[in-house]
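pinging the channel bc i need a second pair of eyes. not urgent but kinda urgent?? the chain im working w is below, pasted from the shared doc
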Amino acid sequence: MDITTMGICRNAEKIYQLVSLEGVSPDALLDISAQDDNGEDVPAKVFRDTPTEAVVVLIDAHSNTSNISYTIYASDGAIQDASAWLEVGAATVSLRDAKLQSRMNYRVHKDLTSRIRDYDNGRQFLFSTIFIKKAIPDRGSAIVRVAVRVPWREDGEVALRVRDQALAPIDSAPIFMGSQKFDARFSGTVKFRETVFSVRLPRDERTVIFDAWDKADPHQHTFFELAKPDLDHLIYENEVLTRSADRDPYYNEWFHKQQAQPWELRLQSEVSFDNEVTWSVVVPLFHTTHQQFTDLVASFRAQSYAHWELVLVNASPEDGELAEEVAAAVASDERIRSITLHKNLGITLNTAAGIREATGDFVGFVDHDDTIEPDLFFHYTEAVNKEPETDVLYCDEDKIDPSGTHVKPFLKPQLEIDLLTCKNYISHMLAVRRSLLMSLEFDNPAFEGAQDHHLTLQAVEKARRVTHVPRVLYHWRMWETSTATSGDAKGYAQEAGMNAVRAHFKRIGVDAEVTEGERPFSYHVFHRPPVEHPRVSILIPSRDHAELLQRCIDSIIGKTTYDNYEVLVIENNSERTETFSYYQQVQRENKGLVRVVTWEGKGGFNYSSLINFGAKESSGDYLLLLNNDMELRTPDWLERMVGLASRKDVGAVGALLLYPDNTVQHAGVIVSGSCANHFGIDLPESNHGYCNLIEDEQDLSAVTGACLMVSRENFQEVGGFDRDLAVAFNDVDFCLKLREQGLLVVYTPQVVLTHFESVSRGSDYSTDRVKRFAHEVGIMRERWSDYYGLGDPYYSPLLRSYEPLDTYWSF
């Protein structure tokens, strides 16, 4: 039958047409296909509006075409039954006529246009839909996550095509990110397949058309158009969500709200401490400007705590103006002392001269062009009184730009020795108990430019306690020659910094190689594994999905350079014939290297039980827990992980995991919020997160069990995994048990794997898993209440501690 058209209008580069469907059952499902003059498929939808009328929606193609022809189909059968679809009729739309008729209808038939315009907004087409989950900016382009939902069928497979408004292909191959089964919101029996793709789009003016269909049933298709303003809005939302504190334009306002008020400073000045600690601060001066010197001294005179001395070391005696200012400062306050050197000896020896003159209980260090907050000594004294064994202190810091605006805060964690060997994150204001300081090497010019890093590493090695004061109490001034302005303003310091870290490892007897990092004053550390190369057992729980397991094992065998390991596949109630065929094949082809052991446990999936079983069946000195949906990127991964795990102070080691589209899936775990979250999730590989921490080795509270190495000795010491935590958070619980034994959990970005998460197991937020998830959250929050009450020690208490903001180190 022919289709009778009843009116038309255009909007947002789409054509809306009202058509009559006489003779079609009012209960029949409708479908449509469309082509242009060149035979190219045109994205199209059809919606039933009344029992006898429907609204057709077509992309108003800008290609070299004049007409769009479409065919409507109807089906009285099940939605998954492709054979039930019958042709209803066909029609052709002239793009020129559609434009003219639309203009007339907007003037004459306003009821019609208001009825059909934007008809597709908010409506599902044949239960198939496309929606954008997020848009991630990355180096001038956008990584767009596109979700497609179609009715569930076992043989279903969704395809996605990406074109512009002219129906020209956009040069981007969609990356498959995973597929899961979902319940429909309106029914407990209707199921959907949701497939997520990642598409990299140029950030130009084009509207992008996403066209998707189920390969097993082409009648299940849909399209979605993404205009530039909509893409820009999605990107803005993502930028706001993922904006870390060091990039937050709100920081200056936040800081002034946190800053001690005059009335608070008056109260602090009246406080008496049991231990009235005295503080000496050494400041080497070298052609310090009038403004720099005035601001520096004023910040000391404003202190609410009185027991301090300022030791000024003038290394530019020829600067008469500076000498006069120093003399005036000394004369005005007996707590200010000065030393004049005969010449500039370099920052190391200039500082050493001041250290020898200091008389305080603690000696701190401030650069001549920086300032401190008026309550710094109060909070440092308070910290020592709370923790009398404190030998080293440091605080948070920020920068002040030339306009006087506070920017780029670094809100630091508690002591992280592995982060400290990657960069001097402690930095300012470092204060060391003088009795300890005098036992250290503080006058070796070989470390010029990194003398503070050299000193910090020595002090931390010997300190009884290192205390972090979580307040922004130190300000770098962004002068032209300062490292606060330009990371490479002192290029000579890079080699000195590496030498300082090498000297640290030599002193503590650790065999490690130190090389230059990606950015100034950052370093890569390779902890060499024991010479005998202890055996590593790679434990991979697996159930069906042989294609995933094969990709995982192929990447291990094909890339791994370590020479003493075994792969142990822990079979978990697989059902498919191809799975067991692959088991036979992989063991036959890799005899002695790959083994399959069968877990006979009942009662559903229990990751903890699988790991404990695999550990008993394995032979390695070290256990590497690995998901079956992994693909190795780093050939020397085992050398690096064994090197870290073999340290006496390390309990577990985790890796940097990336999604297939090179966004972050895991860069360590924070224990906060509802329970625990991954740092940096969904950040593009080019974004290294807050203060570039993603690219640094760190000591954290936990790492994911998707790739986790632990020695057999430590695994057994804490009793393995807790089987009461069957699916979620068992890895976090395991890491916290290691932490309870005084061991470190180390995240290393020098080991990278691709994680195809969600392919092999559904989301923890699907309907049938909510109760179990809530139960496991309850166990964690009760068992590890200190983390949820007092905060994660490796995360600043000044940052948000609830998801998702904690993932991105946000205010």
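so The chain has 21 helices and 37 strands. and Confidence is low (pLDDT under 50) at residues 759-765. — does that match what u expected or am i reading it wrong
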